[in-house]
Amino acid sequence: MLTIKVIILVILIIMLVVYIVFLQLQLRNINRQLTKRLTEHTRQPISLELINKELNTLAININKCLKAEETLRLKGIREEKRFKELIANISHDLRTPLTAIKGYQQLMEKGELSDDQRKKLDVAQKHALELEKLIGQFFEYSYLLNARSEPNLEQINVTNLVTECLANAIAVFEEKELTVQLEETQPVFALADKEMTVRIVQNLIRNCAVHSVGTIEVGIKNKENPVISFRNPVKNPAEVDVNRLFERFYTSDKSRNQTTGLGLSIVKMLAEQMDGRVGATLKDNMIEIWVELQSGNKLKK
């Protein structure tokens, strides 16, 4: 009798061990399927080979979460597409009335105006010019979003390129009564698209011209990779969130509704298209915005 009980107990233990092994295999199978979804970007639902109530419930809940995540992803793609279309439509729609406004302003300027009227016209022309710049950013941003062209990577002299862009912007700095200090450095080479890099530097210059309240310090450093940096003082550093500077229409001063526009978003987009990266730091009242590009030293050799 005792022998029969022992045999039955051994059989039960063996069955339990086998069952536990099967459970472990199913858990490994679930992990393998999840890993495949992550690495191969498949949309295959999780499936099980062993009938087990708890494991089936787990698989069902996992599939529900994955489906909800996929729904949110597709919704985000649709919203991003609508936003791109909205930006493109706004940039085109605003150009026509702005052209008419500037045309009438030019006609008024040619007429006989009193000193007070001419001052008011100058203010109106100034605001029209600012609006034209913003619409230009709209147009550039919408074009970059929709074009997504492959960059033409080549070895470029970043030092010479930045120097030329600063020289072309002298009138802008003089108008804003700003001085620029370019740190002396040896020629720095990068593997980048020349036209895209020029756009990056131009947008950094425009950003400094709008927000700087003092001397602008420009540096071209050659660490592991070439880095272009623009450093300038800001009026209200406590109101600046460097982690959000590259967001579209980030507003630093909500009470005055001052926005950075699209310039820094364009900088980030162009840099990432060339496998580069951007960043910003804020210390005391000095903000530094930098762009890191791929090194061109290997090609140079």
Give a written overview of the molecule:
With 301 residues, this protein is of the alpha+beta class. It folds into two domains: 72 residues, Helix Hairpins (Orthogonal Bundle), CATH 1.10.287; 147 residues, Histidine kinase-like ATPase, C-terminal domain (Heat Shock Protein 90, 2-Layer Sandwich). The chain has eight helices and ten strands. Strands 2-4-5-9-8 form a five-stranded mixed sheet, covered by helices on one side. A three-stranded antiparallel sheet has the order 1-3-10. A two-stranded antiparallel sheet has the order 6-7. The model has no long low-confidence stretch (mean pLDDT 83).
Give the SSE layout.
Blueprint (H helix, E strand, L loop, with lengths): L1 H39 L12 H58 L4 H33 L6 E4 H11 L1 H6 L4 E3 L6 E4 L1 H18 L4 E7 L3 E8 L17 E3 L4 E2 L3 H11 L3 E7 L2 E7 L1 E2 L1 H4 L1
